[in-house]
Amino acid sequence: MYIWMILATFMVLLYSFNLAVRGDMREIKVEPQAEIVISQLVIQHRSARDYIRWLASPLNMTGESYLEEKLDCDTTLSSFLPYGYNCDTGFTSEVYCLNKNDWSQGIGDCSSPDAMKYLITYGYIPQKWLNLSSNTPTNDLLKAAQNVLGTDTSFGYAVHLDASDPASGGHTGDKNYQMAVRGREDTMVYIPNYVVNNGGFSEDCACSGCRRCLVYVTPFE
Hints:
Blueprint: H1 2-16, H2 25-55, E1 69-71, E2 92-99, E3 102-106, E4 115-124, E5 130-131, E6 136-137, H3 139-149, E7 155-160, E8 177-182, E9 188-192, H4 193-197, H5 199-204, E10 213-220
Antiparallel strand pairs: 1-2, 2-3, 2-4, 4-10, 5-6, 7-8, 7-10, 8-9
């Protein structure tokens, strides 16, 4: 009897090798893994957005005001993040204070009527989700972004608006814009030159030899 049980188990194992791979494997396994990456960035950015809105609200009794700064995930944003969020994701949130009439210039007083606050959250695309031949996000990551964000055009990956970056898809800039956020449907949201040329974004995502970055942006009047 024992021998027959062993033989039956062996036959089942042989048969299993002939089973077709599930056609929805990417949908049930790969895309959810990519959605985790997208969700981490989105959660941090929206928490930073809530923090900026709180600064301008009557609920802010601390006297704190706008500053051009990197928003520390573990301290500044801790009260605005969901419980258990792990800040060790490699994403950075920064506030830039721009001259509303000239986005290539900063402004000293972030609370000035002439100031526009610009929030940007960014980070490298993990190698697993980067198409090495085109240096663009894989289709799995772009699909995951659509699943998480829908048609939000403020999210995508940073591209240089010139011929040196084929990922721009032929889009070219002018003296006002050097870079943009390219979305899944070839949408383009310009990144102000002041952001491109200053702060952490300029060092991590804007240089000619920089790695490709995921980016989420929100301007505030």
